[in-house]
Each structure stands twice: as structure tokens, then as C-alpha cells.
Write a sequence for this structure.
């Protein structure tokens, strides 16, 4: 639970160790709303980290940390920077705290953060309508809370829209953060009782008087004990929910289908949430089965036909730790979980062709298939020479051969305009390339062939 655990923006970011490596990678690193807004439109790569913990809800930001940007500000900035790419772009925006508001049965947080998300969607739709060749998909990854308009005991015909929205409109912060303000009050002024709490409810949540039913809760005891926990937040949520006739069936995710909206294909309706990935893959022209075979292969199976031992260390895996070790006759390599690099026995860090994923469900590590070539040492002789015999190249119908890093950075392109055989030398580049996996793409007659190769030194 994050109440009372916020770390002020900026003061511990250096400890993450991420800033230096991002800046080394050419990223503009920003930590405040103003720095984000001030990024020049020509910025190539940017990274924003505005809190060491979760960002505040949209309604709470002005109280607790106005240095944080809003979701629509992040979205608009991202669109501005990414849309300069002439080959297109992909942007994922999540209004993530609607989910937390639902877990806490906090109607104020759900509504205010959904409206913040709605503004972000509006920015994306405005861009897409002007651009004319952009799809905007809006969906939820799951339903949560089983929220209902009209709670048990309400007379449906007497619950007006104004009754529901009025109680929420009167709130100036979410139920989630309200207990934190009581704790701050207690720390400054001493223990709280129901009269003080009633006063705070009046000032911050627009509730003029608490009922005996509200006061059955143990909020004063929890606050005076020094911590507001999940149950306290739920109690504040319940006090508000009663006043706006919003009901809840659970504190957790439900199995309901979720709505999906498409700018280019209106009327998609609702969808099983596991079908969202398939729909996105269909739009992007990605074959999920092939992608899985390429980037999500069980590590043990991958090395079963070579002399290698694979061991897993899952200590601390829930805190982002854990690693796999692969020992071959020639080398020992360590692959940290959820990272895209490995470390060699002599301490070097080598980029992997994919991310090392550990699944607790079956105690299995998954890696990109090309990881095997990298580790078992498919050595590329230097200088590196590629020969193609199956193409006919001409000035009218040329072929291009391009070498990319696995992150997509283009290293070298050679254009072939004559003959049926091509020999491409990359001595100057391959002798300077760091060890790692690379992609070689040959495009001719309108089709592309992709090969991966690795350089191990
Ligand atoms: Zn959740």
C-alpha cells in the first residue's frame, strides 16, 4: 500500500542507477512537469521519471505534488516527439490508477482518473484526425470492482444522474488519499476524533454530516495508530459510495468482458480481454505464434542439444532479482531476469536479442531463440563477408543490405545495382562492433529477408 510512502520527486532518483545509463544512451532525462513541457520539439529520445513511487491520482496531484505532469500532458508531449518519425510510431498510454481506485472501491478516484484518461484519449484522437493515418485503440485490460450505478437498497427510479455525480463533484481529493490528510493532521495537531474527521470530510469531501452508520468504522483508531491501511481507504470509499449510490461487488478484478473502441473501426463492442493482444497483433500485422517462437523460448529446451548446464537462482524474484546461469565448455554467462543483457564470466555486459523472462507459474525462463547462438559462440569471422547468389540486381531493381543493432539502430546500408552475385564486405564496421546480436536485412524485388548474426569475442 502506498499511502504515506511517497518519495518526493527528484531526491532519490539518482539511486535508481538508471539516470546515468539512460543519459549515456542519449536520452534527455526529466523529473518534473516543467522539464517535460520544456523539452525541445526536436528531442530525439526522452525519459521522464516523476516519482520514485506511483504518481498521484489526477485529483490529488495539486495537493501533494504539482511537479508531476498530468496524463494528457505526458500524452501530448509523447505524440509531439514521436510523430516527427517519418516511418510512424507506436504509443501506449495507461490511465493506470482507475484500477487502484476500483480495488479501493473509491468512486472519486475511479471517476477523476477516468476523466484524466479521457483527456489523454482526446489528445490522441485530435492528433489522429488531423494526421489521417493513425489508429487509436482504447480498451481496458480487465474489469475491476464490479462497480454498479445504484447500490443495494436504492430505489432505481429515484436515483438521478445528478445524485450520482453531485457527491463526487463536491470532493476535492480522492478517498484513497483522504486518510493520509488525517495522518498529517494528527502528526501536526495530535490525536483525531470523529468531530475532527467530520470537519475534514466537510472541508475536503463535501459531506456536511456523518451518519451513525459512517461512524461505525474504526478510522480514528487507525489514524491515531499512525498508519492508514487499505481497509481505512475502503471505509472512506464506502462513506462516499453510499452518498452517490454506487455499489461494488468486489475489491478485485472481475471476469467481465471489456469494452474496446477503435477510431477507424467504430462499434467493436466488448471483447474478452485475452483477445486484445490478438486484435492488436492483427492490426500491426504481427504473427504472435512466430514472435513467440522467436522471442519466447524455454531456456532449458533451447540448450538441451548442446553441452551446457542451465541453473536458475530465483532468490528475491518478486523484488526484481533472480538470474539464470548457463555454463558451456567455453564460457559461463549470467542472464538477469527481466533484462535484455547478459554478463560474461570476465564481467562484460553483452546485449541480448530479447528480454529474459521468468515465469513463476511454471518456474521457467524464456529467452529469444538467438540467445543460443550468442552464448554458444557462433563466431563471425572478421572481416565479415556476406554473399548472395539468388538475386538479380539492377539499377531499376536494386537490393539493399542493411545491418541493424538489435535495438533497431541502423549501422550500415549497402545498395546493390548490378549482377547476380553480391559480396558485401563490412570490415570497417564489424571490426568495431561490440559483441552482441545483430540483424542483417536484405531487401530486393519488394521483399525482405532477415538474418540474425552474433559477434562473440
Ligand atoms: Zn488491479
Amino acid at each position: 500500500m502506498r499511502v504515506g510512502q511517497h518519495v518526493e520527486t527528484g531526491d532519490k532518483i539518482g539511486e535508481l542507477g538508471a539516470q546515468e545509463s539512460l543519459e549515456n544512451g542519449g536520452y534527455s532525462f526529466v523529473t518534473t512537469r516543467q522539464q517535460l513541457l520544456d523539452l525541445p520539439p526536436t528531442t530525439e529520445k526522452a525519459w521522464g521519471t516523476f516519482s520514485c513511487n506511483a504518481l498521484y491520482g489526477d485529483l490529488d496531484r495539486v495537493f501533494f505534488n504539482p511537479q508531476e505532469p498530468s496524463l494528457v500532458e505526458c500524452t501530448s508531449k509523447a505524440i509531439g516527439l514521436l510523430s516527427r518519425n517519418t516511418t510512424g510510431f507506436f504509443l501506449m498510454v495507461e490511465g493506470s490508477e482507475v484500477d487502484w481506485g476500483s480495488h479501493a472501491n473509491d468512486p472519486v478516484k475511479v471517476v477523476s482518473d477516468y476523466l484524466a484518461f479521457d483527456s489523454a484519449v482526446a489528445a490522441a484522437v485530435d492528433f489522429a484526425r488531423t494526421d489521417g493515418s493513425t489508429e487509436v485503440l482504447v480498451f481496458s485490460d480487465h474489469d475491476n470492482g464490479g462497480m454498479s450505478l445504484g447500490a443495494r437498497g436504492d430505489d432505481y427510479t429515484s436515483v438521478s444522474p445528478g445524485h450520482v455525480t453531485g457527491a463526487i463533484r463536491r470532493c476535492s481529493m480522492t478517498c484513497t488519499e483522504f486518510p493520509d490528510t488525517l495522518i498529517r493532521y494528527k502528526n501536526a495537531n495530535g490525536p483525531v476524533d470523529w468531530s475532527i474527521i467530520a470537519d475534514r470530510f466537510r472541508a475536503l469531501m463535501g459531506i456536511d454530516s456523518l451518519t451513525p452508520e459512517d461512524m461505525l468504522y474504526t478510522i480514528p483508531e487507525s489514524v491515531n495508530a499512525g498508519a492508514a491501511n487499505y481497509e481505512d481507504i475502503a471505509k472512506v470509499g464506502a462513506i462516499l459510495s453510499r452518498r452517490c449510490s454506487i455499489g461494488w461487488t468486489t475489491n478485485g478484478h472481475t471476469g467481465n468482458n471489456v469494452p474496446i473502441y477503435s477510431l477507424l473501426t467504430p462499434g467493436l463492442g466488448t471483447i474478452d480481454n485475452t483477445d486484445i493482444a490478438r486484435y492488436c497483433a492483427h492490426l500491426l500485422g504481427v504473427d504472435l505464434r512466430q514472435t513467440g517462437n522467436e522471442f519466447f523460448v524455454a531456456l532449458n529446451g533451447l540448450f538441451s542439444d548442446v553441452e551446457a548446464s542451465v541453473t536458475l537462482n530465483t532468490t528475491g524474484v518478486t523484488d526484481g532479482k533472480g538470474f539464470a546461469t548457463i555454463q558451456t565448455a567455453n564460457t559461463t554467462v549470467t542472464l538477469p531476469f527481466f533484462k535484455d543483457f547478459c554478463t560474461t564470466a570476465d564481467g562484460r555486459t553483452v546485449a541480448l536479442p530479447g528480454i529474459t523472462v521468468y515465469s513463476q507459474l511454471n518456474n521457467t525462463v524464456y529467452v529469444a531463440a538467438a540467445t543460443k547462438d550468442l552464448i554458444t559462440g557462433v563466431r563471425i569471422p572478421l572481416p565479415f563477408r556476406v554473399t548472395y547468389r539468388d538475386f538479380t540486381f539492377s539499377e531499376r531493381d536494386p537490393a539493399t543490405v542493411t545491418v541493424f543493432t538489435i535495438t533497431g539502430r541502423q549501422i550500415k546500408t549497402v545498395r546493390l545495382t548490378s549482377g547476380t552475385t553480391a559480396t558485401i564486405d563490412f570490415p570497417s564496421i564489424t571490426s568495431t562492433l561490440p559483441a552482441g546480436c545483430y540483424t542483417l536485412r536484405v531487401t530486393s524485388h519488394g521483399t525482405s529477408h532477415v538474418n540474425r548474426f552474433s559477434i562473440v569475442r
